[in-house]
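User: Predict the structure for this protein chain, please.
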Amino acid sequence: MKKSYALYALLLLASCTAPAGEEGNKTSGKKVYVINNGTWGDSNSDIAVYDLKGKSALAGQFSSVNGQVPGDLIQDALRLGECLYLSVNGSKLVWVTDESLKIIDSIIVKKDENKLSPRYLCTDGENVYVSYYEGFLGRLGADGQTSLCGVGPNPEGVAYLDGKVYVANSGGYLYPEYCNTVSVVDAASFSEIKRIEVNTNPAAVKVCGGKVFVSSFGNYSDIGPAVDCIEPGSGKVSRLPYQSPSAIATDGDEIYVLCGGYDEQYNPLPGRIYHYDPAKGDRGLWNGGVEIDKAYSISCAADMVWVGSSDYKNNGDIYCFDKYGDLYDKFDSQGINPILVIE
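Assistant: Here is the predicted structure, written as structure tokens:
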């Protein structure tokens, strides 16, 4: 960990900790951050700021504010209080910025003098948890201290619920076998207490309605992608009724499932959005089943649902739907591979 992070501990504690009972996602709702994760090895990731009222997007705001690019491939981002955390996988660091995207600090975590590769982020309202692809869950404490807990191979998505952190163990480097577990880490002791079996190659993890939802990619052969629901108390796992899911998001009330996949020639199929109520079950196609070409990602922010599209070569598009499923706007994401929209 960089020594400078400890020097900023009091600042981070004061400005980045959410008020009691909040999860750190409180904003005016007028602007959102569009995270373009770029292409691997090209260091062309950046962040656009989209004005909901004016329907306009300003490109490259991280670079503009700081005079440098974020690095090689922003993988995830979250807001905690007045700070943003950005995990930059290839560059092996987590940026901490203010709301203007001005850098406050960078956090580099090492194991045996080797820098670890951050993937996904979640928060309990005070601490930030980071999955590191080398097989660890990290905790970036509001006091400036960093801890590591061993989990399964090549972890991806993470989510916090009721004192536990759920970590998807993808086993991405174990091809063609992959992994099929979710590590459950007790936040108080910061130790892994069990692993729960889910579909092969789990990726995203979201919490909604007191349950944990995990999307997975399968093995790209005889095991297809899926979305599983974990009951935290019993550990029971059930499968949601969707074919070819590629990404999930939640607004806290429902899970939105982006489905598409590829045809036999590996051409991307148009994306469709389904929604699932943890209490009532499947609610069918959302937004009238509108098909989205080259659908790449899905997010919930500012009472909207956002779908990013990408051809992996050119700037992507963002489809912004209101809570009723009506298309509010479609705009240039101002970067390659729009992976996430946050408030």
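Residues 254 and 280 are 10 Å apart (CA to CA).
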